[in-house]
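REQUEST
  id: r-88c1
  op: predict_structure
  target: Trigger factor
  payload:
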Amino acid sequence: MQVSETLNSGLKREIKVTVPAKDMEARLMERLEDAKNKVRLKGFRPGKVPLQHLRRMYGKSFMAEVVNEILSDSSKSIIEDRGEKPAMQPEISMTENEKEAEKVLAGAADFEFSMSYEIIPPIEIKDLADIKITRPVYDVPDEEVEEQVKRVADSVRTYEPKDGKAEENDKVTIDYAGKVDGELFEGGSATDSELVIGHNQFIPGFEEQLVGLKAGDKKTIKVTFPAEYAAQHLAGKEAEFDITVKQVAGAEELVIDDELAKKLGLESAEKLREIIRGQLENQFGQVTRQKAKRQLLDALDETYKFEAPSKLVDAEFDNIWAQVTRDLEQANRTFEDEDTTEEEAREEYRKLAERRVRLGLVLAQIGEEAKVEVGEDEMQRALIESIRRYPQHQQQEIYDFYRQNPQALASIRAPLFEEKVVDHLLTQIDVTDKKVSREELLADDEDEAETPKPAAEKKAAPKKKAAPKKAAPKKAADKKAEAE
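RESPONSE
  id: r-88c1
  status: 200
  body:
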């Protein structure tokens, strides 16, 4: 086998490989000799089939197997011998001329092919102690825990029908029909819809106008959809809702005691507070970790500047761009709506793709040197968690797919490995903790307006009667539009 380098430019490599016809012939004869003692042909005793007869019958198919074997084995061994790490699977090219291919399969010509690939550049890990970050830490106060406890308690609160006018914290059952420009709009009507005044389930200004109404009352409520409302055809529009009050119910007195805790499946109010504090600290802790990780990645990005393999960047950009365009399409928005152009957006997301690839390679190198590993138990838990997102009848099929496809399984391992490397780095770099307020911790965070909700609150929620779908509620409609 003759191996020669035909391209060495930056990270790009191209290798030409020639396997002489005599070597191809030798490999073919080995296969024929092996088949001679195994094949059963009519008219011939076992092991007595002439080689030339076998060659006429199986020569081309055996030689095709030889070709595939060479391509599979040699591409890997050649790169290993060169001490290189390919960024992606090498691209193989060989003759497309049918007559030349026939000569190779007949053993009458040398087999030639070329391999083109990009290498992962050598990455020398610098002193990690030189990296310094400030980790924001929020101590959850007792008042915030108590506020969450009240929210949980409110989720299992009972209501009793009452005579008289609706007040703050009363539950009202209403029929409503929404109109924009005098026309009913899709999803803007519902019957027997329940809401608790003051819980801000509906768009701003809606619930407040129910105060003072009683069962049997009718009223037209005027509101304006928020300018940032997810359903674009309603954003900023004035609307009228014709309301009929079906029932007004008052809430029982809110008492945080052991009896309430038992309704939630816990033994005491003290245990409820303990669980909620732990959940809040965990969820705010996740924000702390994400901010620390972001600082860490920014520092690594500044420290390591090198050319990233273009094929990896292209693949990462394609993934990002597909998500961006899909999100815009679902939101019925354009790049102009986002105060940019497609060209500018492409440029920005290309830079993001390059950053992700470079950081991915740096983290991989750090993880390799630190001997970071993802255990089989960790992989199994992550895989099970992933397939739970699919319908139950598909889960076994999805599980088998992942277990049988190394590349698919790698997509499960990659984020686990990254987080473990980040954990390792946070023990190696200079980290200073800084106490901050809740607002400071959540500043510049996409969900800064959202208070992390403890699992106990989510657990209690199903005990409430599910509300019918409607366009007027702020949170439900916004989330639906974003999902679509």
